[in-house]
Structure formats: C-alpha cells, structure tokens
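Milestone 3.1: sequence recovery, worked example.
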C-alpha cells in the first residue's frame, strides 16, 4: 500500500472517529447518535478490510473486522430509517437483519462457496434498497428543509457507493485490495466522508437532537424562534383560517403542494412556516393534529355516540383504520374505544387526555 493511500485511509478513519467523538456525550441517551456511531465503526472496519494486505493478518484480527464491515448494509438501513423518520423505533427484524449479515460474514471466513456469496450480496442489496426507500419516501411531507435536501444526496451517493462495491466484489473477487482500485476506493471514501461531514455541520444536523412523537412536535433548530411578524404573521393567520373554516384536512389526498396553492404561496414558504412557527417536522403530523382534534371531539360527543368510530375517522380525513388507530393511541395514550368509553361512560379511572391532544392551534408552542 502506497504512502498516499495509507494517508487517505487514515484520514478517512480519523474523520469517522472525530465525528463519533463529537457526539459521544449523547450515545447513551439518543438512538440516532448510537446508530450513526455504529455505522461509522462499520465504515472504519471496511476501510481497514479493503486495504491491501488485509488477508495477511491473523484470523483473530480479520474475523471481527470482517464481521463489523459486512454488517454495514443493515446498519445503513437502520440509520436511514432513524434519520428520516421521526417516529422510528428499532424492531426485532432490524436486529435479525444485522445478525443475518454478521452470520454470513462469519461463515465466509471459513470458505466462500458461490451460494453463500450470492445470499450475502442479495441481502445486502435488499437492505440498501430499504435504506433508499426510507430516504426518498417521505421527502414530499418533510418540513425540515436541510433534511429534504439531504434525502436525495444521502440516498444516491451512499447507496450507489455500496451497490458498486457489492457488484465489483461479485464480478472481480478480491479487487478491493488491488491497485489501482484500492487507491481509487480510498480517495472516494475520503471524499464521501468529508463532504457529508461538511454537510452535516453546515446544516446543523444535530445527531444528538431528540426524536419526539408527532404529539410533541419540535422544530429542527433548538434556538428560540421569534413570533411571526409582517407577511409571515399574515400567512400564519391565513393558514389558521383555512384549516379551521375550510377544513382541507378532511381530504385524504391533502398535500403541502395543494395547501400552498390554496394559500397562493410557494411551497418552501409554507414548509418553513409550519416547521419554524408551529414546530412540526412532518406535514402529516401537522394535518393529523387537526384530524385528531375533530375525532376526539366527536368521540366525546353524546350526540354521536352511535356513529361508528371508523366513520368518524374517515370523515376526519384518515384513509384507513390502521394508521388512524396508531395515530390516535400515540396522541391520547388510549385506543379510540377506550377514549369514547372514558368520556361517555364516566370511567374516572381512565387516563386523562394529554395537553397536546387538546391543543388544536398554538403557534407559540415549541413542543
């Protein structure tokens, strides 16, 4: 390995470790920080594994490095979900995905029959596609501007790199450790890590920022935001009147684009207003707040006691019962049936309605 390549690989690892160190204080309290640190360790392990001469190391060193490096696609999927979905929670199948890749990587240390290689490559590509889906699927409803931009860059650059590496190793086994590909790979790695570190710093992507539920919406910038004035205040009032009087939230297909057309403003202005002044990170959370306010009022109304819950949910704009039930439980801490019974059946032992559930409009609230 040339001196230049050694310096590039060392520099890439230094950037990764520095990024982990900057957020070390939050690794115990913040999920996204932990997932990101794990991905960075996977990337560091890959930098070491893909360097020339790695196969000459003792098996006791090569095995853990290879296992950590090979689990990167599963970790990439988890990080993408946590970064771009504010409601993300790691599930058992995420752990199973990581364990599957780690097990296949362990088996490869004792021989790599074609079927084993094909199984690993297929799983790795599948997890990368899942990560890309998480990055791109919610872009239309994302109200955090830097995150909307990052979605495409993150998905295209990182996913394309992982796919190229997987395909290259499949077509030309062992190419990662041979010149000039190893040097080119080192240059690309340094470039990717540097650019993304710069982007995250520039846009204040706080990996330590707490992820909260839609009922506790927060802005992406922790600094206090002054009350709206001038044109922004007028737009905020126009938005309030439209949502309360026109009730566009009852439309299942309501989007930020259609709402901005109704108000006669550019989409980016409306996104910024809802995010910065009302504290919502996601358009669906903003709209569901109105829908849930209407539903909770209807369920507590004795005149509507015989109306089916599904009818009330559909009339309020929810497209199906599943998403409605999840949103309602997150919003109130009760199922719709429990909520109706508590308010119409006089069950004093039922949990009280959280403050956030009764707040239909409070521009000054910051979550």
């Amino acid at each position: 390995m040339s001196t230049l390549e050694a310096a590039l690989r060392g520099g890439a690892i230094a950037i990764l470790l520095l990024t982990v160190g900057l957020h070390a204080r939050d690794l115990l309290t913040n999920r996204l920080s932990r997932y990101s640190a794990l991905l960075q360790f996977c990337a560091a392990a890959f930098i070491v594994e893909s360097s020339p001469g790695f196969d000459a190391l003792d098996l006791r060193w090569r095995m853990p490095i290879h296992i950590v490096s090979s689990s990167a696609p599963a970790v990439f999927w988890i990080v993408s979900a946590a970064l771009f979905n504010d409601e993300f929670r790691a599930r058992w199948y995420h752990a199973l995905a990581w364990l599957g890749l780690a097990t296949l990587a362990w088996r490869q240390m004792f021989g790599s029959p074609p079927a084993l290689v094909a199984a690993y490559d297929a799983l790795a590509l599948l997890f990368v596609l899942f990560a890309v889906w998480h990055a791109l699927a919610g872009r239309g409803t994302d109200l955090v501007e830097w995150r909307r931009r990052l979605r495409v860059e993150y998905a295209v650059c990182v996913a394309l790199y992982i796919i190229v590496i997987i395909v290259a190793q499949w077509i030309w086994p062992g190419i990662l450790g041979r010149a000039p590909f190893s040097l080119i790979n080192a240059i690309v790695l340094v470039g990717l890590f540097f650019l993304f570190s710069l982007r995250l710093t520039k846009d204040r992507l706080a990996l330590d920022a707490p992820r909260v539920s839609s009922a506790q919406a927060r802005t992406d910038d922790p600094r206090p935001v002054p009350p709206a004035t001038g044109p922004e205040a007028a737009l905020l009032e126009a938005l309030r009147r439209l949502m309360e009087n026109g009730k566009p939230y009852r439309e299942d297909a309501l989007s930020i684009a259609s709402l901005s057309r109704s108000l006669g403003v550019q989409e980016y202005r409306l996104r910024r207003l809802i995010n910065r002044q009302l504290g919502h990170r996601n358009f669906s959370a903003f709209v569901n707040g109105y829908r849930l306010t209407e539903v909770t009022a209807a369920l507590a109304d004795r005149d509507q006691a015989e109306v089916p819950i599904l009818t009330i949910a559909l009339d309020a704009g929810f497209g199906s019962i599943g998403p409605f039930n999840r949103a309602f439980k997150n919003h109130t801490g009760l199922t719709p049936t429990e909520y109706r019974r508590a308010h119409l059946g006089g069950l004093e032992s039922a949990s009280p309605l959280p403050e956030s559930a009764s707040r239909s409009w409070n521009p000054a609230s910051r979550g």
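The chain has a mean pLDDT of 78. Residues 145-171 form the longest helix (27 residues).
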